[in-house]
Amino acid sequence: MRPRRSRSSRGGRLGLKDRHPIPRELAGIALALVSAVAFGTLAIFGKLAYRAGAEPLPLLATRFAFAAMLLAGYVVVTRRRLFLPRRELIQLGALGAFGYAGETVFFFSALQRATAAVVSLVFYSYPMWTVLIGFATRLEPFRKQLVVALALGTGGVLLIFSLPRGGLVGPLLALAAAFTVAIFFLATQLVIVNIDPISSAMWTAVSAALALGIAAFTTRESLPIEALPHAFALGVATAVAFATVYEAIVRIGSLRAS
């Protein structure tokens, strides 16, 4: 007597035919959510690194160096394009060296002057700036849904925010980081239109590591060995955040991703 084959084992055709690829929009939203979680851990790991005696510039340079190595490994393993045309490399270099490196200096400088909770709350006003700048520059069409989402998100932040006791320098630096990253996201959308997102993320991390490494060398700041595990954790979180947010921007645009 021949054994009955289960439904799942009746050849590969039925299974493949029944499978539907994840819709582009849903995939973009999911990737943006993963990126948000990864970005959300940065303030915590940054605070832990500061407690271990780290100084901002070498910490950030090491963070992006780890992130660049992890992303490069992923690019090689998945056989993606490692080297890009010169024009795209220059654009990504500018994004990393001036855009994201500048934002991260503001952000981690704010962490030295305010709590991680306060810095995160102020920093996460960046969706508002991204939307407003996108509308003002006409990079994105005006849509009521975005305005409603923006109002709800900003209102939620305002409801739980209170002025810190340590002064306004930390929150103002966090606000500068938010404004800078908003410009970074919009510029990224323009640059990576025809480039592999993961390769783009890798070269952004490389340029940020180089810029911050040069700055750390000139200022002679140090990174103690005790802070290296926290720097590596920052690198892992950054690699995941960069890869997923770039993929999200390609699918749903910088405004919706933010």
Quick gist of this model?
This protein is mostly helical and 258 residues long.
Low-confidence stretches: 1-20
Reading the helices and strands in chain order gives HHHHHHHHHHH
Radius of gyration, CA atoms, in whole angstroms: 21 Å
DSSP strand (E) fraction? under 5%
What's the overall geometry? globular
Structural class: mainly alpha
Largest sheet: none
Mean pLDDT: 83
Strand tally is 0
Question: Tally the helices: what do you get?
Answer: 11
Helix content: over 70%
- For the terminal residues, how far apart are their CA atoms? 60 Å
Report what the structure shows:
- Helix 4 (56-77) packs across helix 11 (228-257), helix 5 runs antiparallel to helix 9 (169-191) and helix 7 (126-136) packs across helix 9.
- The chain has helices at 12-18, 24-40, 42-51, 56-77, 86-111, 116-123, 126-136, 144-160, 169-191, 197-219, 228-257.
- It starts with 11 loop residues before the first helix and ends with a helix.
- The chain is 75% helix and 0% strand.
- With 258 residues, the chain is an all-alpha fold.
- The chain is built from eleven helices and no strands.
What secondary-structure arrangement, pairings included, does this model have?
Blueprint: H1 12-18, H2 24-40, H3 42-51, H4 56-77, H5 86-111, H6 116-123, H7 126-136, H8 144-160, H9 169-191, H10 197-219, H11 228-257
Helix pairs in contact: 2-11, 3-11, 4-10, 4-11, 5-9, 5-10, 6-9, 7-9, 9-11, 10-11
Please tag this protein with its features.
single chain, 258 residues, mainly alpha
